[in-house]
């Protein structure tokens, strides 16, 4: 069959690139389809110091560039296209983009999950310059500084406690008067002398000159507007946003099994409910969403995909 791929990977974040590397090295005809910027969320990360072996030139863009170079070295192809529909139930999977149609024996969904945004003035401008969505990634940059954590769920409160390892003061900002996290998590946070709480409060605006220097708050009950300005000696504030993630899986709803939040359900081998279809990275149900776990997922998915091809299409070998 003309232009039939062994492996089609949708998404070029660390999971997709890792899958492409392992697939191409195994001599699978491999295609990566990416609609936006190669690398996913990692390309907006200034430093990836917690990825094993990433010491010199440890920025997100440089790490992605090395991954892409490896994939191409082993023969993986990449196209820039926006996938609009898929037919995954047949033996040969069909992925339709705005620019073309692609057919493959297996498909790995590596579309990722994006942090839910506050959608307030200044958020976009100061992302990576005071505004962050990953405490593990960026906490160290705010050593001895003041940070605000926005959110009231388990992840927000747990990340706030993590940030106390670095920041001299952490204020949790929550739009309600009670937290949604487990009581045990809240109690532990309240016992931490570095943590303060700002309830019934939302962010109205993030302000600064080059970096985040002040945050405008609004009390939801009283309507009072207040502005917190960074200490003059600090010159910068940290704002860590944990109001949820949005898995980029809308395209596969009704086709691939997902949980109530829209994350794809897989087994330990990254298999979905559809034979020959796998999921890897932040778009699947998992406990930790980091570069190191994404690359792990991608490697496993590609290796198991190769085994699936060898067995299912053995008559063609």
From TrEMBL:
<dbReference type="GO" id="GO:0004791">
    <property type="term" value="F:thioredoxin-disulfide reductase (NADPH) activity"/>
</dbReference>
<dbReference type="Pfam" id="PF07992">
    <property type="entry name" value="Pyr_redox_2"/>
</dbReference>
<comment type="subunit">
    <text>Homodimer.</text>
</comment>
<dbReference type="InterPro" id="IPR023753">
    <property type="entry name" value="FAD/NAD-binding_dom"/>
</dbReference>
<keyword id="KW-0676">Redox-active center</keyword>
<dbReference type="InterPro" id="IPR008255">
    <property type="entry name" value="Pyr_nucl-diS_OxRdtase_2_AS"/>
</dbReference>
<keyword id="KW-0285">Flavoprotein</keyword>
<comment type="similarity">
    <text>Belongs to the class-II pyridine nucleotide-disulfide oxidoreductase family.</text>
</comment>
<dbReference type="InterPro" id="IPR036188">
    <property type="entry name" value="FAD/NAD-bd_sf"/>
</dbReference>
<feature type="domain" description="FAD/NAD(P)-binding">
    <location>
        <begin position="5"/>
        <end position="298"/>
    </location>
</feature>
<dbReference type="InterPro" id="IPR005982">
    <property type="entry name" value="Thioredox_Rdtase"/>
</dbReference>
<dbReference type="InterPro" id="IPR050097">
    <property type="entry name" value="Ferredoxin-NADP_redctase_2"/>
</dbReference>
<keyword id="KW-0521">NADP</keyword>
<keyword id="KW-0274">FAD</keyword>
<dbReference type="GO" id="GO:0019430">
    <property type="term" value="P:removal of superoxide radicals"/>
</dbReference>
<dbReference type="GO" id="GO:0005737">
    <property type="term" value="C:cytoplasm"/>
</dbReference>
<keyword id="KW-1015">Disulfide bond</keyword>
<keyword id="KW-0560">Oxidoreductase</keyword>
<protein>
    <recommendedName>
        <fullName>Thioredoxin reductase</fullName>
        <ecNumber>1.8.1.9</ecNumber>
    </recommendedName>
</protein>
């Amino acid at each position: 069959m003309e232009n039939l791929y062994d492996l089609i990977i949708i998404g070029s974040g660390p999971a997709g690139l890792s899958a492409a590397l392992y697939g191409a090295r195994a001599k699978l005809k491999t295609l990566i389809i990416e609609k936006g910027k190669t690398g996913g969320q990692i390309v907006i990360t200034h430093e990836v110091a917690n990825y094993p072996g990433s010491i010199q030139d440890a920025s997100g863009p440089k790490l992605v560039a090395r991954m892409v170079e490896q994939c191409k070295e082993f023969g993986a192809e990449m196209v820039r296209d926006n996938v609009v529909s898929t037919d995954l139930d047949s033996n040969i999977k069909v992925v339709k983009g705005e620019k073309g149609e692609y057919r493959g024996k297996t498909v790995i969904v590596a579309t990722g999950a994006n942090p839910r945004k506050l959608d307030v003035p200044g958020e976009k401008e100061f992302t990576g310059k005071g505004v962050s969505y990953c405490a593990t990634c960026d906490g160290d940059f705010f050593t001895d500084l003041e940070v605000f954590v926005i959110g009231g769920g388990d992840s927000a409160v747990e990340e706030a406690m993590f940030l106390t390892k670095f920041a001299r003061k952490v204020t949790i900002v929550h739009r309600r008067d009670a937290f949604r996290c487990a009581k045990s998590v809240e109690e532990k946070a309240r016992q931490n002398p570095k943590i303060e709480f700002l309830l019934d409060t939302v962010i109205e605006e993030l302000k600064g000159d080059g970096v985040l220097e002040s945050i405008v708050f609004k009390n939801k009950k009283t309507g009072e507007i207040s502005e917190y300005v960074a200490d003059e000696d600090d010159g910068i504030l940290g704002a860590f946003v944990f109001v949820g993630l949005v898995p980029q899986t809308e395209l596969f709803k009704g086709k691939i099994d997902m949980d109530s939040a829209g994350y794809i359900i897989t087994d330990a081998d990254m298999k979905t409910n559809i034979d020959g279809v796998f999921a890897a990275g932040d778009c699947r149900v998992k406990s930790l969403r980091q570069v190191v776990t994404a690359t792990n997922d991608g490697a496993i998915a590609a290796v198991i995909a190769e085994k699936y091809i060898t067995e299912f299409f053995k008559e063609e070998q």
